[in-house]
Amino acid sequence: MSRPPQPPVYLERRSYRRRRLIDAIRLLPFLGFILFLLPLLAINGSDATGGSTAWGGLYLFAAWAGLIALSAGLVRWLSHFDDDEPEEGPPQ
Amino acid sequence: MIGFDVLVGVCLGYVAILFAVAFAAEQRAQRAEVNWLRSPLIYTLSLSIYCTAWTFYGAVGYAVRSGLEFVTIYLGPTLVMIGWWWVVRKLVRIGRTQRITSIADLISSRYGKSNLLGVVVTVLAVVGTTPYIALQLQSVTLSFAVLAADEGTTLNPEDLQTTALIVAAGLAFFTILFGTRRLDTNERHPGVVTAIALEAAVKLIALLAVGIFVVWGVASGPADILARTEASRIAAWQPDGARWATLIFLAAAAFLCLPRMFQVMVVENADERHVAVASWAFPGYLFLMSLFVVPIAVVGLQTLPEGNPDLYVLTLPLALGEERLALLAFLGGFSSATSMVIVAAIALSTMVSNHIVMPIWLRAGDPGAVVSGDVRQVVMVSRRVSIGAILALGYLYFLFTGGTGALAAIGLIAFAGLAQVLPAMLGGIFWRGATRVGAAAGLILGFSVWAYTLFLPSFGGTFIMSETFLAQGPFGIAALRPQALLGMEGIDPLVHAVLWSILLNTAAFIVGSLFSFPRPLERLQGAQFVNVFEHSANPRGWSGGAAEAEDLLIMSQRILGSKEAQALFRTAAAVQGKSGDYADITPEFLETLERELASSVGAATAHAMISQIVGGSAVSMEDLLAVADETAQIMEYSLRLQEQSQELERTATQLREANEKLTALSIQKDAFLSQISHELRTPMTSIRAFSEILMAGSTQEAEQSRFSSIIHDEAKRLTRLLDDLLDLSVLENGQVTLNWQDADLHDILERAVAATTSMEGQPRLNVLRDPDAESIAFTTDADRLSQVFINLITNAQKYCTAEAPELRISVTQAGDGGGVHVDFVDNGAGIPRESEAVIFEKFSRLSDKSQAGGAGLGLAICREIMGKLGGSISYQPSEAGTAFRVILPQREAQAAE
């Protein structure tokens, strides 16, 4: 791999990044589904009187906010590819 | 105390603002000033009609009853939007390319424009939405009653009904005004969308205001709220796993299938990129909407333990003396209710009008009357009537059910009913094998199971199903008990119903699709929907063989040329025994056509084009025609290019040749001129020199006579040269007049030999001849011909290098029109091979020997003369010595005989 980087390589790399980015966006709902079902496993597994609404709620809202932030970040990143901006990689 | 009049005034003012906003947005849209109207923000806010009054007020009540479970209603849509790349993006693209007007239209279009499916989905949507509209009316009247009661005005049930009627009528008016303003092919309503975006902002601000007031005004911050929650009735969280997952699924399904959601998400979408922004912004909206639900519930439980938890959002600020906040909360709830009703009414009226009213009208009406203006009018009227009817239906539902209990449960029940569309919808956009039969079977079965297990039992034995029916099943068959099918007891009724209805629905859909065969249009639409991203151009609907033949003809015309294509089709039709221009699309005909096209565009392209038209593969007609046009253009262009380049090449060759000729001519001319001047100067120089000597007068007589003779010789040479030049010029320019006469070859040769050998001062030359062979009579210019012979003999005299020079003149008659050959062969050294090519050129003298003899024009003149006489002269290199052959035309000789 001693070849100097050339425009075609650059473009392929760019479209490769974009595809992986879309993969990530596609996987997000599954991540969300797992995050939203996890407390059930924890609560049913503990076999106690149940979880706490306060802390369970905090967890759910934190996971929810994280998911939204992640989605926003990925969509923003994707828009950089789709806008045909010259720079490669994530925005600073 | 804000007073009842103020309350009514605020309501009317708010409504007036909504009208003004919607009106302004419509005006701007018509002037195409849509910049901010078509922003991702508006799109995201318009999606928030998902949050109706049921969620605005009801979420808190839900939290009081079931703790965190309320959040599932928001988590489902969150997952759908976060996963926008899977479904929403595709739905939006399909909606755009197929000009989908509603969810019923989507299902109907996908399955071959099936009207049956359109009707089924429409009925399902009306059944599922009407109670929901009633719920909104109820929430508005209830909240109004609460505020009025706080002002000291107690409203009796009649007043409540009047309020509901006024609200319903107002909503109908607004919806008709802005929802059916014009018949847009896109079915977009910028006014409505802008108004509901404003309402979305109002309800979010209202709920956030109440929440912030509760957390920082009543409690002392988040930590305090956490502690209060831990101490409250809902501190323990014991989620039912099945119900939790089912609710998330149900909310996600409803988010996609609710007619009003489909309306704002797909139909009103102005730009696909808005979906990407909404994918995180809308979950963010939902997040904010649910963030303060638990705090409000907890504080509400502490403050108003006896109050209706469904109205805590309103009653809590009132109880704590915050009338203005309560008013804002009321406006938030009012916004939630009205925006939902408006969009639902638009979506439903579109469906009812397009799938029920219009088909009936078109079938019943006189087909001749179907002019576009007529249809437009009918569509408008039917939309408006539908909107009125739907709101009337909602109001009636509200009147008859009245009580809170029956309505409160309707939210999830409606969700489950509309979720029945999901298998047909997802199958339709992801599976090309999904068929109309499968979709209809799934929808009808799922809808029936939903009605049987959830909708009818929800009335608690008061409507159609009796309590005994519920408890023991039909005819006492326990396995068929509505809420425990196949003895599945102890399960949450909602989970039970969703499980059975969706499972049976999906199973029927899959089995029906696998074992049925789709019609051509279904296959075409299936490909269009499933592969929407590969072929996003708008398709042209076509059906039936004639249309396909027409399409094929159109395409062929663009490639083959219209006359050729029409002739091809007519011939094929004649072969099939049909009259007319369209042949039946038989395999044989397709093969022929494909071959024809292949000869123009190549086999692969031709095959692809044909199979895509006939095989219903997913490419639109426009695409194909574009390809055909493009190919034809490229072919024409390349053909023209080829012609042009060939012509250019030809011209270039000609130019090159001309240039070469010109160059050669120019060189020749230069050479000729320098030769002439040289030839003229030499004698002139000697003439001048000797005449100067004579003029000096100091010469002796002997010298005088010698000099005079030199001058005379040189002058003669000059004259001869000029004669020759004149002769050549005359010959070359073709101005010579030949004196044609009967002659005898022998005489001419005799004269020539005599002329040359009698000359004084010439070397002796022995001429060998065969007089018998020479006696040939023919027509020629005897003087000219003898000039040629004299020249040849003179040359032999001058240049023959032999000790005893001799010249053999032999005459042969070549057969078959070859003419008469007269050969002049001497016994000299011959002409060097490299000089053979130039001996006939002007001024070509091979050596300086016997320079005085001539200017080197002799052979050039001979060639010109022979050309004029119709014969030729050539050098024969193979002979020993110098050999020239003069060919006389045979025809002339025969003519003379």
TrEMBL record, chain A:
Q: Which residue windows are transmembrane per the record?
A: 21-42, 54-75
Keyword annotations for this protein, in alphabetical order, are: Membrane, Transmembrane, Transmembrane helix
Protein's name in the database: Uncharacterized protein
Task: Tell me the organism.
Answer: Candidatus Rhodobacter oscarellae
TrEMBL record, chain B:
Q: What is its EC number?
A: 2.7.13.3
> What top-level class of enzyme does the UniProt entry assign?
transferase
Q: Where in the cell is it found?
A: Membrane
Name of the protein: histidine kinase
Taxonomic source organism: Candidatus Rhodobacter oscarellae
Q: Which UniProt keywords apply?
A: Coiled coil, Kinase, Membrane, Phosphoprotein, Transferase, Transmembrane, Transmembrane helix, Two-component regulatory system
Q: Which Gene3D superfamilies match?
A: 1.10.287.130, Histidine kinase-like ATPase, C-terminal domain, Sodium/glucose cotransporter
Q: What is its main location?
A: membrane
